[in-house]
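hey so i finaly got around to running the thing on Rhomboid family protein from Nocardioides exalbidus. pasting the sequence first so u can double check i didnt mess up the copy paste, my clipboard has been acting weird all day
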Amino acid sequence: MRGMPTATAREPAWKSAALITGGFVALLWVLEIVDTASNHALDAYGVQPRTEDGLVGIALAPVLHFGFDHLVSNTVPVIVLGFLTLATGIARGLLATAIIWVVGGLGVWLFAQPSSNHAGASVLIFGWIVYLVVRGFLNRHTMEIFVGVGVFLVYSSVLLGVLPGTPGVSWQGHLFGAIGGFLAARMLTTRRAGRVGDGDSYRPTY
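ok and heres what it spat out for the 3d tokens, dont ask me to read them lol
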């Protein structure tokens, strides 16, 4: 006699991470196609510092880009870093992304130069880099430390983008995205209190 399963097995986190990341990248491309077809009407919804209209950019700027060249340069890092952020826990990765999103956008709105317009997924990219590098050491989790070291080796030179320099590049978005990544790693630490070096102190909660 065969019984019916009482519950459906959950999909592995990496599969869900791949689907969510792929869907997000598809959204970025659809929006840029719409933006181009509308003569770049969506560009006005970036973060415009210290203006009431610019507040909407805190929510929308990370999914908008100033042309396909801008989007192409961000696509691969979004795929790689977004997937890694979600792969060890969907809820925790989404919450980390939300923290980066808000801190990055709000920081730009408060501190960037007036009469400027900021958009692009790089605020998330810089946040994810810092989050991935920092979280393993805070959690004392071996696999996350390995991932963080690998991310640092590949993207460490990119982090120089938090410094002023290249005209037309929102270093403020990079800087506050990175700050958001550090705050996310700190706020979402899953290590229980214990002795330094206690490898059994890790307990994922997201």
